[in-house]
Write the structure tokens for this entry.
Amino acid sequence: MQIRKKCIMFVGRSQAGKTTLAQYLTNRQLNYHKTQTVEVIDGHLIDTPGEYVEQRGFYGALSVTAANADAVALVQSAVEEGTMFAPSFGTMFGGKPAVGIVTKIDMATEEQIERADRYLKEAGAAICFKVSSVTGQGMPDLDKWIQAL
């Protein structure tokens, strides 16, 4: 019997770092491209277009896509001034665990990183990871969490 890897859906605004994060976690070359539609990567990472969180009309698509996920990762760039996540946003996924991932920490100040962390916790992330897909900083902790899921 083959053990199925847990499936995680990445949700966040355009250019938050969702695709780059997925590439890093699947040992692919970092190569930016605009995600146009939901992409399932290696059968266990779901990369969603930023428009799905930027336009409320797509929230239904996020909910439907989350049905195939074991957890939802709310992805927030540390260098973004604001956030697209409303308070308790992570609760809209039918009780799936919500984790926060602050990306681009290699480009941000400590203050920016803490602000992004606060946004994610307000959005309902039970735990937050601070990572850089470029340097690999913080990735071992995130990977350990994914493996334990």
Residues 49 and 58 are 10 Å apart (CA to CA). The longest strand covers residues 71-77. The two ends are 19 Å apart (CA to CA). The beta strands are 8-11, 39-41, 45-47, 71-77, 98-103, 127-130.
